[in-house]
Amino acid sequence: MNERWVVVCPYCNGACLHQEISRLPVAQMTLWSDQYIHGAPGPQWERLAHCAHCQAWMWLDQVDTEPWNPTEFTTLPMLTPMMLADWFDAVAQGAAEDAEQQHYLYRQIWMQGNHLRREAPSAAFSEVEPAWRAALEHFLPDLDDPRLTVELLRELGDFEGALAACQGADLDPEWLAVQRARCQAQDTRPFVVRQVPVPQGG
Ligand SMILES: [Zn+2]
């Protein structure tokens, strides 16, 4: 069963249930070129949600929590999992309180947008692409990880910029070779970097 915690909203003192992200068990852990890891072991938690009572944004690593006791807390509302549109709202509504939180919001937009096109190009991605692109063009100058900079330039279709960023970058030569080939092919989609078995018990 998914792990759950009771979180208390700092604005209205309302209690809500926070549940780890539900996932199907997978045999392989997959690292994607946008640094998204599919099948990472251990519980995964979203860090932001709307309070189910007053709708305020709550950073869940900053609020009071208590273990969930099913016999005592049977009527608490569950926090609604964040969808791509919610991450856009969070940025637009200024939910981030510092640069680190802002970085996290943009990373969610980036990776969740890519979820729509990891396996194949999709109409769903095309629909959100203008907003996704506008957000990530805004995010690009804040990146301080050369792997993310190369990847985002390529995903945004700036192949010359991505190739230039590959120059002199102290990165895995194999990874750089794939990035260069993708730029030559004018391919903007994320790709699988590697797959490893999920550790036992994970
Ligand atoms: Zn509240």
What's a concise summary of this model?
With 202 residues, the chain is α+β, with helices and mostly antiparallel strands.
Describe the structure.
By secondary structure, this protein is of the alpha+beta class. The chain has two domains: 4-67, no CATH class; 84-197, no CATH class. Helix content is 36%, strand content 16%. The protein contains six helices and eight strands, in the order βββββββααααααβ. It has a three-stranded antiparallel beta sheet, with no helix packed on it. A three-stranded antiparallel beta sheet has the order 4-3-8, with no helix packed on it. A hairpin with a 6-residue loop joins strand 1 and strand 2. Helix 1 (84-92) runs antiparallel to helix 2 (99-115), helix 4 (146-155) packs antiparallel against helix 5 (159-166) and helix 5 (159-166) runs antiparallel to helix 6. The longest helix is centred in the middle third of the chain and has 17 residues, at 99-115. The model has no long low-confidence stretch (mean pLDDT 92). The structure holds zinc ion. The site of zinc ion has 8 residues, from loops.
What is the average of the pLDDT values? 92
Distance between the termini: 14 Å
Instruction: Work out the count of structural domains.
Output: 2
The string of secondary-structure elements, in order, is EEEEEEEHHHHHHE
